[in-house]
Backbone:
């Protein structure tokens, strides 16, 4: 009986390996990607973090056409926790964002008000964009794309 289970597990793992090889990741760089930045304000600093974030949000909207979605949300379980959700047209748009002087000024002003600031990258991000983000010194985790698609929404 145990031998049957072992044979079944080995057979299934082989099938899963073949199935996983049937999928191809998106090409790194030219496709949309998601960035999640998690911030946690020091006590008494949440309102200032929101004010600084509101100001940079307007500047990013005006100056970064490759930023497709840019939202700043409060953690429902922690009034001092915030999350930036950003969707970029491609890796070049992320690099453009990282080189934006307004972003640099924001990070310089907001960082002393935080006890946590981490970034997660999702999607087929180019190595150049990942390295540019890591070069900022921000703790960054890149979750490499394994498979997926991007729907064409052009009319």
Residues:
């Amino acid at each position: 009986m145990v031998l049957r289970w072992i044979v079944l597990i080995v057979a299934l793992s082989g099938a899963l390996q073949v199935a996983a090889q049937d999928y191809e990741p998106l090409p790194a760089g030219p496709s949309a990607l998601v960035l999640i930045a998690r911030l946690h304000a020091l006590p008494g600093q949440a309102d200032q973090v929101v004010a600084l974030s509101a100001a940079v949000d307007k500047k990013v909207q005006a100056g970064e056409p490759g930023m497709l979605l840019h939202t700043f949300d409060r953690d429902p379980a922690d009034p001092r926790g915030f999350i930036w959700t950003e969707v970029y047209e491609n890796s070049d748009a992320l690099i453009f964002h990282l080189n934006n002087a307004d972003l640099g000024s924001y990070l310089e002003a907001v960082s002393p008000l935080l006890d946590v600031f981490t970034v997660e990258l999702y999607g087929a991000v180019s190595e150049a964009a990942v390295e540019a983000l890591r070069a900022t010194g921000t703790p960054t985790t890149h979750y490499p794309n394994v498979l997926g698609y991007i729907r064409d929404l052009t009319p």
The mean pLDDT is 87. The CA atoms of residues 21 and 109 lie 46 Å apart.
